[in-house]
Amino acid sequence: MQKGENGVAMVFKANPCSRADLSAMAWRVRKFGGCTTVKAFPIVEFIEHNLMDYCSLQVLDDSECDDNEAWTAPELGNIYVRNSVYEAAVNGNPRARFTLAHELGHRIFHTTSQIARCSIDEMVQLKIYQAPEWQADAFAGELLAPTRMISGLSISEICDQFTVSYDCARIQHELLQRQNLRSVG
Ligand SMILES: [Zn+2]
Does this model's pTM top 0.85? Predict the structure, then answer.
């Protein structure tokens, strides 16, 4: 999710970005972190230690966060996360790890120069590849369980080895199958 300067959740459109673009950036991030052979990407350590000058992870008391698990402020580049989600991510909870990877996607792709607020008309016509939430989810899936690393694995093996949720593993597994079908056809 993203919030504007007044802290209110807003609808944005992003620069168009294909799944291949998002996948390429996710792999660059893994390379930057020295994680091209590490299966379970250390998302918390990566944001806290490798991105210190680029991205600040602010852990907030749950009482300050309403119902929000985490969000990114595009004008500041900060990622805010509620304490319980941060602790869960530190402890390897797949959903919390995905939440942080999703917010990192917003930080990389959705700074103020890369997105614009949407009018109602634009919102209706928004293409999926312009939707920041879709882009952040696709980036997170590729960062945590890159299709190039999951070949030959079952969905449950992807869950176990990459510390991702069943849904995330299933989507990445399907994407790989589609990629393989395209390369055969
Ligand atoms: Zn989001």
Answer: yes
